[in-house]
Amino acid sequence: MGANFSRMGSIGALLVLSWAVMSTAWAAPRVLTAGIGLNADTPQGKAMQRFADTVQAKTQGRLRIELHPSGQLGDDMKMVKALQAGQQDITCPDSSTLAPLVKDFSAINYPFTFLNTADADAILDGDWGQRVLAKLPEQKLVGLAFWENGFRHLTNSRRPIEHLREASGVRVRVMQNQMLIDSFRQMGFDAVPMPFPKVYDALKSKEVDGQENPLPTILSSRFYEVQPYLTLSRHVYSAFVLLISKQTWDSLPPADRAILTSAAVEARDEQRRMNREMTAAALDQLKARGMKVSNIDVQEAESVRRQLRDVLDHYNRDIGEGAVVSMYIDLSRLRTQGAGSSSAVARQASK
Asked: How far apart are CA 244 and CA 144, in angstroms?
């Protein structure tokens, strides 16, 4: 009888163990909600899906990222606030959106600072970029990586613009960043800050005459339908920042945090590759859709920066000159070492 009880006890233990294993296997994955402003078929949208797939695979299904593109969860500012409140897990806004929280981010959007992608990659992935990301946890956010929005170009419905001095009176939508608003106004534009999801309708209704964005965004957003003129200005390099709510981050075990970080970097490299390939192809497609293209020579950059001296000096003081100066020291070192490309190469990249 004792033997029977022993066997029954062993069977019971096996049943408990089996049930525990099956319960773990059947446990529902934790779903993290991710929202972006752009469409799912943009480099940002495709990279977010790559990021989601990598995280799900590497966590063996413990984490699943559910993507909501096209501003379904609101504009960038709304989604950042949702992350801070713990109401959303992940987003990837333009870096300028974060400037009201961490002033250093404004330095990225100084006009004609980066002349090529090699400069931008080296600064944002290097010590300077990591120091800026390290300031986000104080704002209830964690920055996983810088992705690429790209060099921004102008479109409008009024006239070709071949020199920025021809901008007078053009009413242009700009990002909701005061430094950019002030810069565009100083250049002569009538600058109107506006969330990205409202831009197409504002262009169509002539609430604004133009806007400025990277070429893949101009193409994927169908701005060519309502904007006949494209100016290749490369006036600002624009970066995305892949963010996760600090509340979400703190709730994850270290192993899953490491997976999210490595997946963010893997997706960053893929996103940049796709963005640069799409940028090269987008110009031909925009021309084919009827846009009339003009160029602003990168040599105009220095005269524009002189025109903006008062604005930039103000923001140097506001941001703290240490952040700006350290960026330019790093850029100067890169260019001295030959990491940056020449103006001729920069011009070629815009063709």
From this structure: 7
Which positions ≥6 away from 10 have C-beta within 8 Å?
Answer: none
- Measured CA to CA, the distance from residue 319 to residue 132 in angstroms comes to 12
- Judged by phi (left if over 0) then psi (alpha if -120 to 50, else beta), residue 184 lies in alpha
Residue 143's region, left for phi above 0, alpha for psi from -120 to 50, else beta, is beta
- For the whole model, what pTM was predicted? 0.81
Instruction: Give the total number of structural domains in the chain.
Output: 1
2 part of a folded domain: no
In this structure, is residue 141 part of a structural domain?
yes
Q: Residue 147 corresponds to which tokens in the numbers above?
A: 């992705």
187 has pLDDT over 60: yes
User: Do the domain assignments include residue 5?
Assistant: no
Helix (H, G, I), strand (E, B) or coil at 317: helix
Structure tokens, 80: 């950042």
What is the C-alpha to C-alpha distance for residues 191 and 173, in angstroms, rounded to an integer? 6
Give the C-alpha separation, 102 to 99, whole Å: 5
CA distance linking residue 192 with residue 208, whole number of Å: 8
Bridge pairing between strands 171-174 and 292-295: unpaired
Evaluate whether residue 264 is within a structural domain.
Answer: yes
213 near 175, Cβ under 8 Å? no
Say if CB 212 and CB 174 are below 8 A apart: yes
User: Cα angle at 119 between 117 and 269, to 5 degrees?
Assistant: 50
Helices in 27-133 by DSSP H: which ranges? 43-58, 76-84, 117-125, 127-133
Output the domain CATH number for residue 141. 3.40.190.170
Type and span of the H or E element at 184: helix 178-186
Q: Is 31 left (phi over 0), alpha (psi -120 to 50) or beta?
A: beta
For residue 34, the surrounding DSSP H or E stretch is strand 30-35
pLDDT in tens, 19-78: 444 444 457 899 999 999 999 989 999 999 999 999 999 999 999 999 999 999 999 999
Full residue range of the structural domain in which residue 205 is found: 29-349
